Structure formats: structure tokens, C-alpha cells
Amino acid sequence: MAGRLDGKVAFITGAARGQGRAHAVAMAKEGADIIAVDICRQIESNPYPLATPDDLTETERAVKELGRRVVARIADVRERNELRDAVEAGVADLGKIDIVVANAGILPMSMGRPHDAMAFVDASDVDLLGVMNTLAVTIPHLPDGSSIIVTGSTAGMIRGTTDNPNMGPGGRGYGWSKRTIIEYVEEMCMHLAPRMIRVNAIHPTNCNTHLLQNDGMYSMFRPDLTQQGKQATREDAEPLFTLFQAMPIPYVEPVDIANLGVFLASDESRYITGQQIRVDGGSLLKWPNGPGG
């Protein structure tokens, strides 16, 4: 059923690549115009490369290729004024916002480096404060019946994963932020329910993006190789990725998350709010007490 988002405008953070780009493309396919936002520069504590201006340009191209309008802006979700400027530019061009996807996130794991409290600060500033800033600048523009979608994390729900001591302060900041998002979403849904605005969270398992596919994460899954002084590769780590899910898969794809995003953005989910929906291949049920439980 095509055209589920005809006439709607979606504001998406972390849109230059990964899950954010997948949301933008999937929603454009269903008729939405897109306001795409990303930081497009490195955060010092984050060991793997973040998106670039070229990545954001590629998202813009992909949306336009589908015949939809797009406003692409570089903005840091930690800076509310930058987000507000992006919102105002998008609304000036596209007229409104009906859908918000607060997706931007980082996992600044230590990756063998000295532990630094700033990694916790950076993780929580992007993964939690960034969500709060996104909602703060978009809610005043939302008409009744809009949809807000927040990216959480199944791993963040499972103790002993991102809060593993080897992950360092950044891993703990990521997990704490993603768990706090659960309560934040439930609070916000109650305050926006009188306006028929729904607020839901999607909690992915391992997802085939740069946050998973990097040398630091490979080392976390293969500490035996690290102890031998070897750099773990994707081929070394992927069999271990598969152990995380109940289904025999190493990860889900960004489009798997985007498919749920389209549903939550559409009128088909008009009475679904305050939900924590896992796209996790059964990982939380497999590890309810954590990997060591």
C-alpha cells in the first residue's frame, strides 16, 4: 500500500546515513517530504567515523530521486539553537512538520583508550539530550495527530552489554541514555495524548550501520584476539554477533527499522502511543539477565 505518508513532512536527525537515511528514504517512498539533519563532523570521544557532508548530500539525492522535496541541514543535536534553525528552515520551505524521528546517536566506546568521563558526557548529550532538544524545537510546530518516533536500543536494555567495563564511560552513557529514553517516551506520550500526538520508541538490536561495523566493536566481541595483540575483523566478529539474537542472524538492516518507522508515522498507528517496540530478533528475551546471566 503506497502513499501512506502522502502530504506529510518528516523531520529526521542523524539522517546522513544508517538508520536515519533509511527512515528518510522509506518515508519519501511513501510520499513524505523530508527535513534531514546531521552533525557531519567528528566528535572527539567517538572512535569510529561519523557522517560527512557528502553522506548528507547522498541522503538528499536519494530523496529527490524519489520525487520528494528535501531540506538538508548540518546541525548538532546537542545545540538546541542549531536544531531550531534547521526546523525553521525546513518549515519555511516545506510548510510544516507532521513526523519527528529523533534518531541521532553515538556509542563512544573506549576501544583500548584511557577511560575519559567526557565520553559519558558526549554519549548522553547526543543520545538523550539530543532527543529532548529535537522534541523541544519540533513540538511547537506539530499539528494534532502527529507522530514522534525515538530511537532507543535493545542492547541498552540488557545489562552487561554497553555497560561492560571494557566499553568505558561512553558505553555506560549510551546505555543509561537509552534506558532513560524509555521513561521519557512514556512521560511525553501522556502530555501529548490530549492532542492525539503519539510518541513511540523503536529499540533495534545489532543493526548493520557504522555504530556496529567498526574495529572497536569487533574487538569487543573478540577480546581473545585483542589479548593476542591482533585486530579483530568483521569476519572474526560476525559469528559472535549472531549469538546476541534468538534468531540466527548477526544483525538487522536499517530498512527493517525504517519499515516500522513508516508504520508508526502513518495513520495506521493512530492509537499506538507510549510503546517500546523492539526490532531485536528476540535478543532481550534470550538475554533477560544479560550475557552473563
Overall average residue pLDDT: 96
- As for the number of domains, it is 2
SSE arrangement, N to C: EHEHEHEHEHHEHHHHEH
Overall 3D form: globular
CATH topology category name of the largest domain: Rossmann fold
Structural class based on helices, strands and sheet pairing: alpha/beta
Helix content: 40-55%
Strand content: 5-15%
Q: Going across the major beta sheet, what is the strand order?
A: 3-2-1-4-5-6-7
CATH classification, class level of the largest domain: Alpha Beta
| Count of individual beta strands | 7
Rg over C-alpha atoms, rounded to the nearest angstrom: 18 Å
In a nutshell, what does this entry contain?
The chain has 293 residues and is an alpha/beta fold. It has helices spanning 18-29, 53-65, 80-94, 117-138, 154-157, 168-192, 215-221, 223-227, 234-244, 254-265, 283-286, and strands spanning 9-13, 33-38, 70-74, 99-102, 147-151, 198-204, 276-279.
What does this structure look like?
- This protein is α/β, with parallel strands linked by helices and 293 residues long.
- The protein has 2 domains: 9-211 and 254-281, NAD(P)-binding Rossmann-like Domain (Rossmann fold, 3-Layer(aba) Sandwich), CATH 3.40.50; 213-250, no CATH class.
- Helix content is 44%, strand content 12%.
- It contains 11 helices and 7 strands.
- The protein has helices at 18-29, 53-65, 80-94, 117-138, 154-157, 168-192, 215-221, 223-227, 234-244, 254-265, 283-286; strands spanning 9-13, 33-38, 70-74, 99-102, 147-151, 198-204, 276-279.
- A 7-stranded parallel β-sheet has the order 3-2-1-4-5-6-7, sandwiched between helices.
- Helix 1 runs parallel beside helix 2 (53-65) and helix 7 (215-221) packs across helix 9 (234-244).
- The radius of gyration is 18 Å and the shape is globular.
- The mean pLDDT is 96.
- Pfam families: adh_short_C2.
- InterPro entries: NAD(P)-bd_dom_sf, SDR_fam, SDR_subfam_1.
